[in-house]
Design goal:
Number of strands: 15
Number of domains: 3
Largest sheet: 4 strands, mixed
CATH architecture of the largest domain: Sandwich
Helix content: 10-25%
Strand order of the largest sheet: 10-11-15-14
């Protein structure tokens, strides 16, 4: 690779102002808008890269020093104690190679609401997300098509700069990431213009999701490899889907059982009847036996929520609430009086407190 000073046509003792002046002169001659020849374009890139290195004091110092030895003999004098401790407590004394540009993408957490009816058998969702996707122009290489990264001329592809420090223990070697290539070992002279050298772009993407039956609020589903693409086309992260089941006006849920209440008129509870109720997956015929009391529970097997793990479904539990009429006309009142007189029911009276009775009224579904 050509020497940066030769590329700019200046001496190694050139001042920053002389380096800037030389760069401006060459840039005016070689800029693609002025000189469209392929040779001029290549020279323009070399001039720009040389100026980037030599105009930065730290990079110029590293460039002038050149490759450094990794080990040295014992020497006299006192070195910096900070570098000594860095070497022994966390510093890198040996070259470990450049790091990869490709990194794993971040995970994402999405929240989705589902109806209770969708929980019974599961459902499908197509989720629209704004995320990072692979750049189609460079396919994750970060470079313009037809170009590729070049070896860093500061660290010579190592990704790190090693320095030898004189200390009481001899020459101690410390290592730090290269400031020019940021530890990658290569630089990209021609970054992709679509992704700005990132290897990925922001875009809207559709993620198809099959939500299984039996999910409940708070459950998280993991979708491996559905997250954002990492830098430089790195592997995709994961998506975590957090479920929230919407409130239902009729049915509630206890584990995999569905609970609801059926209001029955007093005369239907006395005489018995049949009722057709609309469950989440179709109508059900219920038999109300004569003499049915409030707080009784009718159980319909296998008409609840599908089990999340395993086969089968929970039950549908229907609690009976006998409705006492509050408005009767004269004829209806007379009929009720005749019924009461015919049966001669005892007058209301206090009895022994029964905890089980109130517990049943309160938890009529759970105590069945």
């Amino acid at each position: 690779m050509a020497d940066h000073y030769d590329v700019l046509g200046v001496s190694r003792e050139a001042t920053p102002e002389e380096i800037k002046k030389a760069y401006r002169r060459l840039a005016r001659e070689l800029h693609p808008d002025v000189n469209p020849s392929p040779d001029a374009q290549e020279k323009f890139k070399q001039v720009t890269h040389a100026y980037d290195v030599l105009s930065d004091p730290g990079q110029r110092r590293d460039y002038d020093r050149g490759p450094q030895p990794t080990f040295g003999g014992a020497g006299g004098g006192f070195g910096g104690f900070g570098d000594i401790f860095e070497n022994f407590f966390g510093g890198q004394s040996q070259q470990r190679g450049p790091r990869s540009r490709a990194e794993r993408g971040q995970d994402a957490l999405l929240r989705v609401e589902v109806d209770l009816s969708e929980v019974v058998f599961g459902t499908h969702r197509d989720l629209e997300v704004d995320t990072a996707v692979l750049c189609e122009t460079c396919n994750g290489s970060c470079c313009l098509p037809g170009t590729s990264p070049v070896t860093c001329d500061i660290c010579h592809g190592a990704g790190s700069i090693q320095r030898t420090v004189r200390s009481l223990l001899g020459n101690v070697v410390t290592s730090a990431p290269c400031g020019t290539c940021r530890g990658y070992g290569t630089v990209i002279p021609n970054p992709c213009t679509t992704c700005q050298g990132q290897g990925r772009v922001r875009a809207r993407r559709t993620i198809p999701v099959d939500i299984p039956a039996g999910v409940d609020t708070g459950l998280r589903l993991q979708l491996p490899g559905q997250g954002e693409v990492g830098p430089a086309g790195g592997p995709q992260g994961d998506v975590y889907l957090e479920i929230k089941v919407k409130h239902h006006e009729v049915f509630s849920r206890n584990d995999d059982d569905l609970l609801c209440t059926l209001e029955v008129q007093m005369w239907d509870a006395v005489l018995g009847t049949t009722a057709t109720v609309a469950a989440l997956d179709g109508d059900i015929e219920l038999e109300i036996k004569p003499g049915t009391q409030s707080a009784e529970v009718l159980t319909v097997k296998g008409r609840g929520v599908s089990h999340l793990r395993g086969n089968g479904r929970g039950d549908l539990r229907v609690g009976i609430q006998v409705v006492t009429p509050t408005k009767l006309d004269h004829k209806q009142k007379e009929l009720m009086k005749q019924l009461a007189a015919a049966h001669k029911y005892p007058a209301p009276a206090l009895g022994h407190f029964q905890q089980g009775l109130f517990a049943k009224l309160r938890d009529r579904f759970l105590n069945v």
